[in-house]
Amino acid sequence: MVVAMTRTTTNAIEVRGLVKHFGDTKALDGVDLDVKEGTVLGVLGPNGAGKTTLVRCLSTLLRPDAGTATVAGYDVVRQPRALRRTIGLTGQYASVDEKLSGRENLYMIGRLLDLSRTEARRRADELLERFSLTDAARKAAMDYSGGMRRRLDLAASMIGSPAVLYLDEPTTGLDPRTRNEVWAEVRRMVREERVTVLLTTQYMEEAEQLAGELAVIDSGRVVAGGRVDELKARVGGRTLRIRPVDQADLQKIADALAAAGLDGVAGAHVTDGAVTVPILTDIQLTAVVTLLGRSGVTLAGIDTQLPSLDEVFLAITGQKATTTQDTATAHELEEVAV
Amino acid sequence: MSAAVLTKPALPVTDEGRIGLRANLRHIGALARRNMLQIKKDPESMFDVLIMPIIFTLLFVYVFGGAISGNGNQDEYVNYLIPGLMAMMGMNIAMAVGTGVNDDFKKGVMDRFRSMPIARSSVLIGKIVVELGRMVVAVTILLAMGFLVGFEADSVPGLLASVALSLGFGVSLMWIFILLGLSLSSPQAVQGMAMIVLMPLQFGSSIFAPTSTMPGWLQSFTDVNPLSNLADAARALTQGGSVGNSVWITLAWAVGITVVTAPLAVAKFRKAA
What we know:
- The complex is a heterodimer.
- In chain A, strands 6-7-8-3-9-10 form a 6-stranded mixed beta sheet, sandwiched between helices.
- Chain A has 13 helices and 14 strands.
- In chain A, helix 7 links the parallel strand 7 (164-168) and strand 8.
- Chain A is of the alpha/beta class.
- Chain B is an all-alpha fold.
- Chain B has helices at 2-6, 21-41, 47-69, 74-104, 108-114, 121-148, 156-183, 187-203, 216-224, 226-239, 246-271.
- Chain B has one domain (21-271).
- Chain B starts with a helix and ends with a helix.
- The interface between A and B is large, with 40 and 36 residues.
- Chain B: Its main location: membrane.
- Chain B: This is Transport permease protein.
């Protein structure tokens, strides 16, 4: 009955009051979450906030101590086998066999998902092609670059065409170019496969790039949630940084911005050889840039920056994120559900 | 009456998505193939299986054989030693399974296996299937080496029976070492622990020398040592002596060890973080 009810809703993931202890540490302290079908939820939080524990509970690797969680209508504790058929998991650490080649890895996973030999081979080649790994198909995964390995990991998660995909810090430790590649893959997967994604990240920028909604998590609790633009408005949006060629122009720019009295633009100040201005909307950004163009100052550089995770926490909770404990040490204490 | 309604029943884990036998065998096959491919990528990992039987045969026959049999009578000792070494091969390879499991099961790919719709035991059984193959290779080389230095078997069925018994006992030992491999923190710890268990069992047995010259207190240990039973059974099967109860006792040990340690190992694998 419960199953039938939850299946008819449009939430692919429903989490209610989820609790998980490791000894005295509460890794999850009553988490509530909903992820609508076909959307991406970004779970944003510092190290040790409970992000990985949440993903491990939702993928049946850990049994929660209290609360409930259903994924695609299946209960994580009571229906683990059926649930495993509907999920794909890409962990913080590459979850492929390092010694096997890309194709061998994908073929193996296809066979474990009950594809026939022919079908497993076909699916492996198809995914290698789609994730631009065909040239490296016969190379051992340990010889892949960081970005290739993450792409192989994503491909491995997609073999069973899961309804729900967990991406646990998919770009941690990647350089910016490779990070962009992974983001592009994730966006394409969401667009083309209509997969529901729960993404954990430490980066506001990553959340903004990929997620429609955000849950900010700290010390095992969801401390804020909502659409990305709503949260951004609360946090204060972007910061525009303007660097003139001549340092003498710094004060001139700041004064010009202050004098113009642009709607909602306030608090331009000079730091570190640049003028920084908090920006909330694209209209404000355009107005500031137009003003700069008219001012006749020669510019060396201009860029926008998203708030850091710390700034997000500061704005939302009024305090710094509490880094309770490193997630890696938490793993050693973990117990696993059936 | 109403009390029963108020008490929330504990809902059982459903059978939905249960894994059938055919699917289970297919999963074991895919995972065994993974272990085979790992060996193919890393051929050095076969050195123990290929070299150990040769070294042990030469070492014991020519260094100790003459002394043990008296008057440099190595030929007689070969027939005593080879069945014993069969027992030892199983034990040594089983130990390697422990260190291999310890290293392998910390890898990220294990999280993927645990989050997939497969029986978790299939990961362990896939490993055992391949290790059994390695045992077959080791015993084959041992016998080839044995025949080269003058080993003689009484009958082919007897020889095959002794091989089967050694392999069966070896597989049961693998469960112990898998459990050890999943319980200890590093491959070095597994190796160290295994040596502590292995040395007295191997040398405090009838594998290398008859126990009749050993002191009484040691004999009471060697008599119950399952490796002595296995070595005696293999010897009787290949040399045509009286088998007695040694075959049954060895089988009982193998079944007993498996029944106790296999469920513990699977449970440990489930819980390993």
